[in-house]
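Subject: sequence -> structure tokens, single chain

Hey, anyone have a minute? Need the predicted structure for the following. Not urgent.
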Amino acid sequence: MATTILAVCTGNICRSPVLARLLLARTDGTVQISSAGVRARAHEPIAPHMGDLLKSRGLDSSQFTARQLTPEMIRTAAVIITMTRAQRSAVVRAVPEAVRRTFTLLELAHVLSTSPGPRSATDDATRWVRVPELVSLERLNHSAWNRDLDIEDPYGRGEMAFRRVFERIWSATDTVCGVLGTGRQPWLLSAPSPRTGAQLAQPRHSSQLGRP
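Reply:
Had a minute. Here:
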């Protein structure tokens, strides 16, 4: 079975598709990246502001459509990454055995920031499968539960709210992928600010977001 990373938010049109697209650009093809929403706006495209921000980084999301989270998606995912603690709780209520592999994005970035990463891993599938173990080992060294672990929903707000959320997701994703030492070249590290509108080369592989 393929190793799957599942990104989760509320509507699956703002935050989780951005995380999924960034992860797709930072993985080597040995993992599948998907996203879904706990109350998805099913079949809708990505929010225009988020699509524009991804495009400014050279990432295409034009084929994305939102989908509803299901228990089966949770059961088959090696790691589930949510945007808020409430979403994490919703995932665990649906599939209790997923508790040790479900994290908010900010929690994951905070706890892994001091981890040496998965030593001797040869591909991204192996790296991501080890994430729950790495988090378990590092969590006692952090006061993560005293931190703000939520990334707010920008839906229905202005452009600056979308930009702020995008940059928080970008930064946390960069931290996580940096620790894991993902297989593809870390071209995202030197990417321009979305304010510049500069374009990067398209990644070599692409798939529709939100679909395994």
